[in-house]
Specification:
This protein has 90 residues and is mainly alpha-helical. The protein has helices at residues 2-23, 29-48, 51-64, 71-82. It holds the Pfam family DUF7813.
């Protein structure tokens, strides 16, 4: 989870600094880091807590993992499916 938070924050900082560079808008380093991290966290929370996506993940877990009897294994599979888009980093 820490890697996902750090990666998303860093991605937001890079995105924010790139946009500022192309808009030729001078911004301090601390404001760039703060605003970029905030932008990355907002993107992460919107992605994780988006209701239709959560519903689709739940139904697909029920559909594909219905034969799994062990609750711990089922929970681990559900978490992996929920966080799968973050594992596709280059």
């Amino acid at each position: 989870m820490g890697f996902i938070l750090a990666y998303t924050s860093a991605f937001g900082v890079v995105f924010f600094s790139t946009v500022d560079f192309h808009l030729r808008k001078p911004v301090s380093v601390t404001e760039t880091i703060y605003s970029g991290a905030r932008l990355g966290m907002r993107r992460l929370t919107q992605f994780v807590f988006w209701r239709p996506r959560g519903t689709i993940v739940r139904f697909s877990c029920i559909w594909f993992f219905a034969d799994v009897r062990d609750q711990n294994v089922l929970f681990m599979l559900f978490v992996k499916v929920k966080l799968m888009p973050f594992s596709l980093s280059p």
